[in-house]
Specification:
Structural class: alpha/beta
Radius of gyration: 17 Å
Oligomer: single chain
Number of helices: 9
Number of domains: 1
Number of strands: 7
Largest sheet: 7 strands, mixed
CATH class: Alpha Beta
Shape: globular
CATH topology: Rossmann fold
CATH architecture: 3-Layer(aba) Sandwich
Helix content: 40-55%
CATH superfamily: Vaccinia Virus protein VP39
Strand order of the largest sheet: 3-2-1-4-5-7-6
Distance between the termini: 45 Å
């Protein structure tokens, strides 16, 4: 099983529907805060189920939702069928986006599932799709010293505030014996230090800085904002 296979199914990552709804609502809120204008063109790459994508679409001119899992795309297409502001794409269809047309690309909680080489190839793609004044936001990047215990603590804090603490405790037990835990042990997750990420981005034509706060609920992880080198 690969990470793409894992996400092409209902997973134990979300302990219940409230957890999933609050998670996607929080991510949508954070993405909306990054949108530069009402007519901006935005790509959410590795969007997942994007339950609050309608909120993002309402704040921009065009929203592209891209995900590698066929099941996820089917659900997104069913939800947004007939909405001209939302386009659902597979990663292989990303070339349909015009070069130099995007104002914002958001990549949340994806890089840990990619190899460094895969990440580099995507950076070339994203660099080509951005306007010279556009921004690439890489969120939920895992630092090398992050432990599974840190992720569990962040979840429990989020659950306490969101009113699903008991479900979160039970969910952590389920996750410990799930395919996710097995895949994490077999395939691992890709980690980046702050300096490594900035160096990689510069090598692919971006100037970048770490954002003070991560997108989403996990404060131990990092978010970077990158702009094409040479932009005004």
């Amino acid at each position: 099983m690969s990470w793409r296979d894992f996400w092409n199914a209902d997973t134990p990552i979300y302990v219940n529907e409230r957890h999933k709804t609050l998670h996607y609502g929080l991510i949508a809120r954070d993405i909306v805060a990054l949108i530069p204008s009402r007519d901006a063109k935005v790509l959410d790459y590795g969007c997942g189920e994007a339950l609050s994508a309608a909120r993002v679409a309402g704040a921009c001119g065009q929203l592209y939702l891209c995900d590698g899992a066929p099941l996820v795309r089917e659900r997104l297409q069913a939800r947004f069928r007939g909405d001209p502001k939302v386009v659902v794409l597979s990663p292989e269809e990303s070339d349909r986006i015009a070069d130099g047309s995007l104002d914002l690309i958001v990549v949340n909680s994806l890089l840990q599932y990619l190899s460094v080489e895969e990440f580099g190839e995507l950076l070339t793609l994203w660099r080509g799709k951005l306007k010279s004044t556009g921004q690439l936001v890489l969120a939920d990047v895992i630092p090398p010293d992050t432990r599974a215990l840190d992720d569990a603590a962040a979840l429990l804090s989020f659950a306490w505030k969101g009113g699903f603490l008991v479900a979160a405790l039970k969910g952590l037990v389920r996750t410990a014996v799930s395919d996710y835990r097995k895949l994490r042990a077999e395939l691992g997750l890709t980690h980046y230090s702050q300096s490594e990420m900035v160096e990689i981005l510069r090598g692919r034509g971006f100037e970048a800085e770490r954002r003070p706060a991560n997108l989403g609920h996990n404060p131990k992880r990092m978010t970077f904002v990158a702009r094409p080198l040479g932009a005004d």
